Here is the input.
Amino acid sequence: MVGRFASSLAIPQQGSSCPGFLSYIRVVVSGFFCCYEVTKGISVLSKNHVPKKGSHYLAVEKALEMIKQKFHLLARLFLLARKSMIITDTNIDHILGHDAYKFCLQLTGAPAFIGNTIWNQLGVCSEASAATRPRAASTVRDIKIERNLLTIPKDDLEFSIIQENIRDKLNLKSAGAAKKELARENTRLEQAIATLEKEKAELLEERDAAVEKLIRERQRLRDSRGFEVTRKRERVEAAMIEKANGCFGRVRDHLTRLDAFGKANNLYGQASGTRKCLEMIKASGTEFRKK
Here is the structure.
């Protein structure tokens, strides 16, 4: 991935502040060289600065000389830009905001620049906003600088110039960057699909295991119910057999007693008839001889 940083600096006309401004420019330049090197876990494969460090210093010196001479009304304001292209061995994702890509550039020994891109386009990591100013010594001064940045017309003009420049760059890079982003999105979708397929397979396995367990439990309950019914049936049959045996025993006893009673009744009838016959014979006067 290529990290692009472009800064726009408004150089004031007053010549008395030129030495301090030049030292500040050098701090900014040194900040461009070290911004990526301090990042942990990322190695810089190559870097290219346009213009080069020496040429940038010469441009700043020339701009300061033109300000001192005041030879033309157009020399009241200079807009210097410097681009640094750094190629790393690791892909660095953009920090995507609601409307643009946000960025923060920490300078060496100075406060950080915080800005955002003009357009929400792919392929550009960060672009410094126009008319940036260093932090003041007090909060009141910071608020005053902030109000000036929002109300001064020349800052709007600077911003429109940088906006047009960035728009041209984005128009050239948007197609390729969109393809890269599309490929990255396709990769993420493929990974998401693979994850969903894996989860689906796991859920199907869990469902099959649950169904098999339910079938086994149902069969176990069915077998248990059948065994319980069989045992209950056996107990009922045993009770019925025992009850029938008792009934049959009582009937047998009754029949046995009834048979004995019939025999006794026959004997009693025979004896009673014999006695009546003997009494009748005796009443007729016939005597029985004893042998």
In short: Confidence is low (pLDDT under 50) at residues 1-18, 27-40, 94-101, 117-128. The radius of gyration is 58 Å. The helical segments are 18-34, 53-69, 139-151, 153-283. The longest strand covers residues 78-88.
